[in-house]
Amino acid sequence: MTLSLSAVSVSEAISEPAVPSRHTNMAADLRKLPILKSSAVGAPMGIRCVAVYESYQLKQFTDLGLAEPILRAIKSEGYTAPTPIQAQAIPLMMTGKDLVGIAQTGTGKTAAFVLPLLHRINELRDRPIANHCVALVLAPTRELASQIADSIRTYGSAMRVSVAIVVGGVKPGGQIRMMARGVDVVVATPGRLLDHVQTGVIKLDRTETVVLDEGDQMLDLGFMPTIRKIMAKLPKKRQTVLFSATMPQQIRSLAEDFLNQPAEISVKPTSTPIELINQKVMHVDRDQKRDALIGILRGNDVGQTIVFTRTKRGADKVNEFLQKAGLSSGAIHGNKSQPQRQRTLDDFRSSKTKILVATDIAARGIDVDGVSHVINYELPNVPEAYVHRIGRTARAGKSGIAISLCEHSERGLLRDIERTIGTVLERETPPGFSGQGERQPRSEERPASARPNNGAADRPYKKFDKPKARPQQQQAKSRKPHRGQAPGRSQSPNSGLQRLAS
Ligand code: AMP
To answer: Is the CB of residue 151 below 6 angstroms from any atom belonging to ligand 1?
Structure first.
């Protein structure tokens, strides 16, 4: 693999690391890199871009200088080569410098920060100190925290490493007992961590490295004030690593306030997952959605499937009718207790249940291999959530199918999604449906390449284009707005109505 390190302050990273360099061999290797271009151009966040390195050959994990037990664990996972984010982040993290990584889930970024943490822990060999941890990883959701902890155990299976998962939704007793002994790594969601820090159960004054994973999601979930309080409890001399899929202003200021001259690396997913996903829309009436969903789920080619709803109540209702129809499913959303959420996720991961019904928040960061289908039982209010949802399939280079069941009142949301992804989605008739009432996209809406050859599934506009909105609109006036109604979206009568109906 040819690695292109662009706009990374590598030489600064080597010359004066915040934590004394623990990886002199790697640092020496980096010093030997050819500087093909130099640039004095300042990057965002005041990061000094002193050099652009190209053509650094990192073909194997063995080139990264990782300890032998870690290499053994990676090998038994079947990884043959580091992903681009791993090839870039691992050597940089091993120099002890701060790092900002712009990368999404699916790029292998968990191993990118977990492997250097494990390398450091393996080097230390000291027993953990009571109530302390060497490394802290902050994640936005309980599920993601638990997934990261699993990765730490997997990649650390050939060495001694202790991990505490510190998340809300469970009784604190187990966490308190675990912390009394001290651990190598704490993986936490911000709220519960701060509770423990304030009561002295967790002391952060000896923590060497802190990783903030999925920074933009933590921002979306309102965690920034809590994160700032946590950062203030960490020692000044530490390594701080921030991963985020995007860089909104508040994440930038977080980096400016808490990171010390970070190197910045940015990777796109190796293959844009969206290209591997066969995306379709099925236009159905609201009362046809259940039959359409069951029809799809009973298809021969359907494996593990995630069904998305907008609301927690919606997720429970869908789960109920799927179970009544004899399908094996479980629901996951914010009103479920943490043990329930974990059990449901474990059952789905181990294929004990075939279908996971989820809301957006609960599904964030979930990485389950082998999800063949994502079904949007209800379209999301924000188009970006659509991209996030369908990314649960087609993982690790596999292909996947994403089907959206779109009722009349969701057409505004569908248009927003199509605008965001820059494609008009293929229309298809649900299995067992005649296509009656199905909307044929206007010819000018769809690129020639997107038009299916067999028009069998397509029908001209029928009732959906017409007045059906009117009686619903009257009904809407007499009902209170839905609590979850997104601000600024009510201009469209359709989008307002669909929220009332949800
Ligand atoms: P992440 O972006 O950390 O959520 O990782 C996405 C998926 O990629 C996970 O299922 C990992 O097990 C897998 N993965 C991570 N690193 C590698 C690698 N070097 N080679 C193959 N698969 C990997």
So the answer is: no
Pocket residue to mutate for ligand 1, from 59, 70, 76, 77, most atoms within 8 A of Cβ: 77
Answer yes or no: pTM beyond 0.70.
Answer: no
- Residue pLDDT, tens place only, 313-330: 999 999 999 999 999 999
Q: For residues 167 and 148, is the Cβ–Cβ distance under 8 A?
A: no
Least confident of 41-55, 213-227, 242-256, 357-371: 41-55
User: Which residue has its alpha carbon closest to ligand 1 atom 18?
Assistant: 79
Q: How far is the CA of 75 from the centre of ligand 1 (A)?
A: 13
Which atom number of ligand 1 is nearest to the Cα of residue 369?
A: 10
Which atom of ligand 1 is nearest the CA belonging to 80? 20
Can you read off the two tokens belonging to residue 312? 């927690």
Domain-by-domain residue ranges, the chain?
3-126+191-264, 277-427
Domains 3-126+191-264 and 277-427 share a fold: yes
Tell me, in angstroms, the distance from the centre of ligand 1 to residue 396's CA: 7
First to last CA, the chain: 49
The secondary structure of 264-290, three-state, reads EEECCCCCCHHHHEEEEEEECCHHHHH
pLDDT tens for each residue of 221-277: 889 999 999 999 999 999 999 999 878 888 889 999 999 999 999 876 544 456 778
Q: Which CATH superfamily is domain 3-126+191-264 in?
A: P-loop containing nucleotide triphosphate hydrolases (3.40.50.300)
- Averaged confidence pLDDT in the chain: 76
CATH T-level assignment (fold) for domain 277-427: Rossmann fold (3.40.50)
Burial class (CB in 10 A: 0-12, 13-18, 19+), 257: exposed
